[in-house]
Amino acid sequence: MEPYLVIGLLLAAVVLFATEKISVDLVTLGLLCVLVMTGILDVREAFAGFGNEVIVMLGSIFVIGAALRDTGVLDSLGSLLARATGGHPRRVVTGMMSGVGMISAFMNNTTVTAMFLGPVIGMARRLKISPSRLLMPLSFASILGGTCTLIGTSTNVAVSGAMKHRGLEEVGMFEITPIGLVIFITGLIYLVLVGMKWVPERDRAEHANGDAHIREYLSEVVILPSSPLIGQVAFQSDFSVLEFQVVKLRRHEMELPIGPHTQFEEGDIVLVAGKVQNLIKVKKIEGIDIQEDVQLRRSGVDTSDASVAEVVLTPRSSLVGQTLRSSNFRRRTGLSVLALLRGDRTLNDHMADVVLHAGDLLLLQGPYDRFQKFEQEAEMVVITEHSYATSARKRGIATLIAFAVAVTASSLGFLPASIAFLLAALIALATRCITLDTAYENIDWRLLILIGGMTAFGTAMAKSGADALLAGVVTHWLSPYGALTVMAGFCVLTILLTQPMSNAAAALVVLPIALQAAEKLGADPRAFGIAIMLSASISVLTPFEPSCILVYGPGKYRFSDFIKVGSGLTVITLAVILLLVPIFWPLYR
């Protein structure tokens, strides 16, 4: 009975992970509670995974990455690379992807994408090409670059720890580098020669004219007393001169249908779609103003010296899933929302009632330090260049050197990886590259709980015999075609699960079953484990990967864009995995 109970819990976990109705960390902790209450695991076994050195290692890497970002070191690297590439789009993509992949081999994918987002958009504007031509290759490069080292992505570290927990040798720092480089180079060649034909080119005409703000945002404009717009017909008004599209009209807190004879009145709040520079001009035009500014002035807030910046909401943002109204955005952040945009389309609901999604672009106004605070907390990415103090940059370089020493020491076996990276993180704190509060805020606690909990769930699968049962089903159907076919089946399953689930969750769900299947076939379980790990790190079929979400809005992409480009890239990189894994890690010894 126990195997079927564990399998049922596994299916429930997959569904809950995919729908994200409940946070993954809460699902994981709930599973552990059920496993203990049913007697499948005791308390010590349930929480043993949280004492794994992988948890310390990943937490340290999160802190180091945040310190390098906050001191401007990563920003400098991004800007340097952006300036170093130029000319033909294919050469730009090749140079950019090479640099991004190299950095992503040692840093979190999402952090690297966020770091390059602003510089790449700026580079696209200078070269007068659409950012959409560069942003998708940027996200793919950060993902594929993560396959080159153990610390290139948290999924690699999580799978390595799970393999060690099951008695297998853990993955070395550069053990997967040869195959990772082949995956990355193959992906780069595919994107440059084939994939770029499918990467969309949006707003080419406006970029060619040097327009630095081509995105059309949704904003609410109020018609002030004595405005020349009063009495004008909505669709033939001065809004057309400002290149605004009138979307909706609200009068006395009620939404009115806009007909061919609808005229504006004093106090009307008009929902318009327009470009950034025109929205900013509204603040200087007599008779109209942005609704948010009017409310701020009525509250006694001086906005004359406020900064204005475009930002992208990150997948980790606590604002995702809330509206501006329900989140009490202005009071909570100290910033006011002038306009917003989602993907390739302008929203048509009143801003306060729009449910925010990861990847949404917001045009915000407020003190510069508030932008900096929320960027440090990974709530948003500011698509502007920031200036950093020289002293902070020097401290950041010291942290970068400490990080490089940690990588070298751990790879050569001088120090355990967890201790090496923990020391580097402590150096970042000691040199004041990052505050302790900011360090804690930048650790992805949900991921750490997921890894610790799913490690214990793997123990439950082995102890109950659920992994053997599932492995028996898979091997029964696929074993007649050989161990490589069985491994391919698990790789495909992992790739499919990474679309609705996080990469680490998908890998940790499939791994125990794949390892047991390998043992049943008499094959090397470690080869299966590495194949699963690499397969989980090539999640490019859909824009659900956090790195892809970050570029989705600024690139004005559609869901189908990722399927067109990512499907071919997935097939090619999967073929590389299935071809090379048995060579580097023979299936039979």
Looking at the structure, what is the overall shape? globular
Strand order of the largest sheet: 3-2-4-1-5
Q: For the CA atoms, what is the radius of gyration?
A: 26 Å
Class by alpha and beta content: alpha+beta
Share of helix, binned: 55-70%
SS summary, helix count = 25
Strand proportion, as a percent range, falls in 5-15%
Give the end-to-end Cα distance, rounded to a whole number of Å: 35 Å
Stretches where pLDDT is under 50 for at least 5 consecutive residues are 205-214
Record field, number of beta strands? 9
Characterize the main sheet.
5 strands, antiparallel
- Average pLDDT taken over every residue: 81
Polypeptide structure, described:
- 57% of the residues lie in helices and 8% in strands.
- The protein has 25 helices and 9 strands.
- The chain has a 5-stranded antiparallel sheet.
- Helix 23 runs antiparallel to helix 25.
- It is a multi-pass membrane protein.
Helices, strands, pairings?
Blueprint: H1 2-19, H2 24-37, H3 43-47, H4 53-70, H5 73-84, H6 89-104, H7 109-126, H8 132-145, H9 154-165, H10 177-193, H11 204-208, E1 216-223, E2 245-251, E3 254-256, E4 269-275, H12 276-282, E5 288-290, H13 291-298, E6 307-313, H14 329-333, E7 336-341, E8 361-366, H15 368-376, E9 380-382, H16 390-411, H17 417-430, H18 436-442, H19 445-464, H20 466-478, H21 483-497, H22 503-521, H23 525-536, H24 546-552, H25 559-584
Antiparallel strand pairs: 1-4, 1-5, 2-3, 2-4, 6-8, 6-9, 7-8
